[in-house]
TrEMBL record:
Protein's name according to its UniProt entry: 60S ribosomal protein L21
Record keywords, A-Z: Ribonucleoprotein, Ribosomal protein
GO CC annotations on file: ribonucleoprotein complex; ribosome
Keyword field contains Ion transport: no
Gene3D superfamilies, A to Z: 6.10.250.3260, Ribosomal protein L21
Domain of life: Eukaryota
PROSITE patterns tied to this protein: RIBOSOMAL_L21E
Pfam families the UniProt entry points to: Ribosomal_L21e (PF01157)
Length: 164
């Protein structure tokens, strides 16, 4: 166990760049548009030291609450003791990426609205609640045909000759 408790202690592998992803930062990272309320994943880029969040926030998902010239304010949940605190941190754009955590929810909302509109046109009321997967349907196991197996009597003389 290392003795140091510094700001970047135990980050040798955590902040290292992936295999074949070293070198200059692509410009597409700087051209992304972030708006207040967007979900973002904090993913530290070890090659850029400015605006780097603490190692605790690496891999966390939060919501954008502020957008500045070079940084993004992200609100992240942090468990401290027996409570969860909403921490507001400013992180440079190189250390965040858009999160996909909300995509499935938005698709489900769109699909439910479409199903409700179709049901309303038919004059029905449907439930859009998700149901847990039920048990698998039953089936009959086909019985295999029985085959009687009998042992062959042991022959010492034939065994000594190298038979069988």
């Amino acid at each position: 166990m290392p003795a140091g408790h510094g700001l970047r202690s135990r980050t040798r592998d955590l902040f290292s760049r992936p295999f074949r992803k070293k070198g200059p930062t692509p410009l597409s990272i700087y051209l992304r548009t972030y708006k207040i309320g967007d979900y973002v994943d904090v993913k530290v880029n070890g090659s850029i030291h400015k605006g780097m969040p603490h190692k605790f926030y690496h891999g966390r998902t939060g919501r954008v609450w502020n957008v500045t010239k070079r940084a993004i304010g992200v609100e992240v949940n942090k468990q401290v003791g027996n409570r969860i605190i909403k921490k507001r941190i400013h992180v440079r754009v190189e250390h965040v990426q858009p999160s996909r955590c909300h995509e499935e929810v938005l698709q489900r909302i769109k699909r439910n609205d479409q199903l409700k509109a179709e049901a309303k046109a038919r004059g029905e009321v449907i439930s859009t609640k998700r149901q847990p997967r039920g048990p698998k349907p039953g089936f009959m196991v086909e019985g295999a045909t029985l085959e009687t197996v009998t042992p062959i009597p042991y022959d010492v003389v034939n065994d000594l000759k190298g038979g069988y």
